[in-house]
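So, can you check this record?

>
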Amino acid sequence: IVGHDSNFQEVQVVDAAKLLASASSGEEVEVETEVIVAPVSVMESSSMVSPDAGENSTGEGSATFVGETQTTPIFTPHDLASIAWSVTELRDPLKTPIVGMVIKIFSRLGYDSLSLSGADLSNLAWAIAKYDGGSYDTESLLITRWIAEHVSYRSENIDILRVFQPPELGRVMWAIACTMSNYASAPSEAMGDCYLLHSVARKALRAAANNLSIFSTEDLVRIAWAFLEIADVDLFQLDSSEVAALGLILATTEMSLHRWERGDCTLDPPTPGSHSDASVFSSFFGRPRINLPLLDLSVSDEEDDDEGVLSPVLQKSQRPKLRDLSIDPSTLCKAACSFQRLSARHPYIKGGWTLTRVAIRLLSSKNARLMKECSIHDIARLCEAAVLSEVDGHGRELMIGLFARQ
């Protein structure tokens, strides 16, 4: 905000996605100045919205109901979704109150306010999944359920990839699964129709497996994990097409991880039809990769206290860089746990040990430097994956022993 009085605000605006991308490219980002002619207190007055406003609103809705009087909207639902995603990705100091306000507004505007593009739905779901304010739990779950219903409705008669680009589909499914798993103990009426959630997860899984070349490894793993997380209670009812889709994604992921461990790869190379903006939405321990110093580290360097323990398992010459890892370690921990659960429940389905081993190697390396960056929930998931793994051999015992000590 560059200027204001009681009736207007003059605001400098930039495109958040371009701003993130410019951090590595060095290109200048165009700055626009907008003048908002309305009382500054309008957004703060959202608490005065009539409880029935969400039911009575039409079209895009409005963020500026004050009492019973409807004024010209300052922010459209598209704006609100973009703001929530931007402050989340930029880790703005005010992101918690801002995202909380956006959640509150959407819950009052109602289901119809989410008639948004696939990009906006994924941005909003992503911001809600990463919201850590401790408030609006019921509203967060409600809006996420609405988003899932919109995804289901729009992809009912058309390919889901005509609604979402691959990075958007990966993010929206990851976000839905995260939010739903965080509130797994919520009443069934708040969770909504479980069959609908499973249907959406299946559509995304099949779309990803049938179009591997246009998805990044990160997005493939997000979608596979989301499917396994959402369909957890129905793992015994997997059909052959779902097992085949999971197998394709797992094989693609393991190949990417093997290349990374050999140190002969960089981030997934673009393929014809892939989306060049996927890197803008790529994360590392949930943080944007842009200008992240942590990525300059190599795995299993000489200063590790346990390098002698690792040496029988890992060749000294293998020094893969963290920046070349195509999967967020947090996502890797989640997927490792889910695939190991799948193997435990379906003994004829083998998979997950490569994901578990690489995740253990990452978190144990550098004297557990990366373990300090990891969410305690994801560390717990990786512990479960290690316990469930049935791979025998000296290397497994060494790796898991080191992980346990760290």
In short: The beta strands are 3-5, 8-13, 32-37, 65-66, 69-70, 283-284, 287-288. The chain has a mean pLDDT of 77. The longest strand covers residues 8-13.
